Amino acid sequence: MKLLLTGGAGYIGSHTALLLLQRGYDVIIYDSFVNSSYKVINAIKSYLDADGIDYKLKTIKGDIRDKSSLDKIFKDSIKEGNAIHAVIHFAGLKSVSESVKYPLNYWDVNVCGTKNLLEIMKENECYSMVFSSSATIYGLTNSVPISEDQKISPINPYGKTKVAIENMLCDLFKSNMNKWKICSLRYFNPVGAHPSGLIGEDPIGIPSNLFPYITQVAIRRINLLKVFGDNWDTEDGSGVRDYIHIMDLSEGHIDAIGFLMSKESIYEVINLGSGKGYSVFQMIREFELSTGCEIPFLIEARRDGDVANNFADISKAENLLGWSPKRSLKQICIDGWNWQRNNPQGYT
Ligand code: NAD
Ligand code: WQD
User: Which pTM does this prediction carry?
Assistant: First the structure.
């Protein structure tokens, strides 16, 4: 089966691409490389080559806003007699703070880019998509665990673009309920790395998320961690989140593709998380215990837009996809540290 992975060179896309190739899928990665490195492609290939796996991977540099470039990919595949069956749509911009500064760019890339892609898919009769949505769309809710029917209330432009895309996908499905098969996966906090240490998360500049910040403190690229508040209404006062191992998350995409292929037509929104909440202090402690690295930290004021407690109800993913997360917080820390230690400067 042939899949197009937009944004397939990024953090989540690269881990999913590697798994798909290992399992015999034919993969095209389409990425502008605006937030990723070509080195990730070489890392994927070298892992598969070392494993003696026969794989079919094509990488194309391009922007999802470029319709003619997208159209050529679909048409070329049809001409080769090996049409694209489905798209996993990872491509997009994902920084909350950047989206506040440059909202038009976020609406353009995320929403207009997705509209372009859907138009080209329709023209080429490819009707299946797994979309990267985000738990950020639940906004400032404090009612946990968060299930898919909880109120959608995004508080930043990034989250609003994800809601707009989900609405567009739902409208499209309703316009032709015999054809479209669409699944929006609402990720919670993806963290960690491939166990080989060959691919992992490589944020540009100073990380804004907790886990890559911790690994960069551990490798001493950053002096200390700032903990945003120790007076939240949680057990130890620090913020609680749902950290999911990147390999568990990647497996969720393969199950989502299998789920779509088993249906005549469908539209579903599904949470992907670990279903468990861990606090910042628990994360620091687990990282120190699992890796032996000390993580010096300082308590700072709360960060704007944060909530106390946020973790997923994952029963829908378990029931519909037959998926469940298998890896522990300890495994997250071991694999994330292995990647950072082997690649102190990331891909650069
Ligand atoms: P990432 O930035 O590592 O990957 C996104 C990829 O898309 C990058 O390789 C980037 O170069 C590419 N891209 C960006 N704009 C593009 C464009 N116009 N055309 C083609 N390619 C383009 O991010 P990620 O963490 O792998 O996230 C993947 C998806 O999952 C994103 O849509 C993101 O919003 C969503 N998501 C991520 C998280 C998270 O915490 N990482 C959580 C929830 C949802
Ligand atoms: C986790 C906890 C912080 C950094 C973000 C996006 C969301 C989604 C996932 C894309 C919180 C605390 C953090 C630090 C800290 N991405 N923290 N010091 O905020 O749950 O979600 O990433 O869709 O849209 O908003 O994740 O990793 O930033 O924060 O104390 O330096 O760690 O306050 O409690 P968050 P995070």
Answer: 0.98
